[in-house]
Amino acid sequence: MAINVTRSSLPKIEDYVEEIRPIFESHILTNMGPVYKKFQRMLIEYLEVPYLSMFVNGHMALEIAIQALDVKRDHGEVITTPFTFVSTTHAIVRNGLNPVFCDIKTDDYTLDPAKIESLITDNTVAIMPVHVYGNVCDVEAIDEIAKTHNLKVIYDGAHAFAEKYKGVGVGNFGDATMFSFHATKVFNSIEGGAIAFRDKKYRKALHELKNFGIHSPEIVDAIGGNAKLDEFRAAMGICNLRRVEECMRKRKVIYDWYNERLRGVPGIRFCKPNPNATCNYAYYPLVFDREEFGKSRDEVFDSLLQHGINARKYFYPAVNELAVYRNVYNSTNTPVAHDISLNIITLPIYEELSLEEVDMICDIILSCGR
Ligand SMILES: *Cc1c(COP(=O)(O)O)cnc(C)c1O
Fold first, then answer.
1. Are residues 233 and 251 in the same domain?
2. Which of 180, 210, 283, 316 to probe ligand 1 with, by most ligand atoms within 8 A of CB?
3. How many CA atoms lie within 13 A of 283 on its CB side?
């Protein structure tokens, strides 16, 4: 059987049935009903954030957060990273704003704070960094820059569920943080997402904009869409939230075993996450130095594939090199992102992956080397 990069986490079917039983009794299927509210309370407590609004998915959460933070302006620019899933950039562009790509750091692939300020112009309205692979950004430096220049910060925290920075929930930094609960993420509600935020003033906008801008039955006071999280997905989220700590513990064993097998191999580079942050073990990225290792990332990827192992070239191409954007935005000023995207691979990691399978994957990789 093929081994994929991830495998969606599921609760016991009995647990899910128990959680959706009240829905069959109440006939309330959506529109922020009792299951949504229960899930919301559990998440606020677990993530240790003051406020949280949940959405049908992470992407719509991000799009609506930009709208709710009211940063839209003619020719408005958002400083962001090209080393991410395309959703981050699309959310900016679909709001009529222009992404300005800033390069990333070589050690953890997050936005390089030292390169942000030179990109700030009179049109800059916000910074949108990404906690890529769950590597927590340099939140203090970024928030400081934003304060100095009066910019909003919206973190794409799709990969950073459950993480803490200096003991504080990662959703407490910047003006807002998006979490994704997509089936492939470390924690899922099938599809789903949320915006964590600290300032109560955004609560109304986030709540209304995901429900057509409806304020009350006879008052529609904003141009909203429909991005509500329904009761069945909220129920799945509740079930998976009860298991997420165990799930991360199991992933850590795999993560540590990869480290054990691959550390010290010439030409294999590991990311160095922020030492002040915790890790959720969502991804296992590796960078290959072709000269030193002897084979390229693509050759390693193909070898794995021949053995039925679907690793992923996350994130390749970099967003500013994707067909839709490469003729619109200049990618020459983000050489680090370009280089990492050419040489990175993410290896399979999920709860049920056995250490024997990890050994097999490592053996294939090592057999590619010199
Ligand atoms: C998954 C992901 C998203 C989008 O989240 P969805 O819940 O799939 O809409 C956005 N940004 C990043 C970095 C992601 O990995």
1. no
2. 180
3. 25
**Counting atoms of ligand 1 from 1, which one is nearest the CA of 87?**
10
Same domain? For 126 and 168 the reply is yes
Q: How many domains does the chain have?
A: 2
The reply to whether ligand 1 has any atom less than 6 angstroms from the CB of 193 is yes
- Domain's final residue, options 219, 239, 259: 239
Say if ligand 1 is within 6 A of residue 88 CB: yes
For residue 1, pLDDT over 90 is answered with no
pTM: 0.97
Do 200 and 106 share a domain, yes or no?
yes
Same domain as 285, residue 346: yes
Among 188, 204, 239, the domain boundary falls at 239
How many CB atoms within 10 Å of residue 131?
Answer: 31
Instruction: Kindly state the average pLDDT of the residues 116-126.
Output: 98
CA nearest ligand 1 atom 5, residue: 58
DSSP-based helix, strand, coil % in the chain, nearest 5: 40, 15, 40
Ligand 1 in contact with 135 (CB < 6 A)? no
Decide: 64 and 92 in contact? Cβ < 8 Å.
no
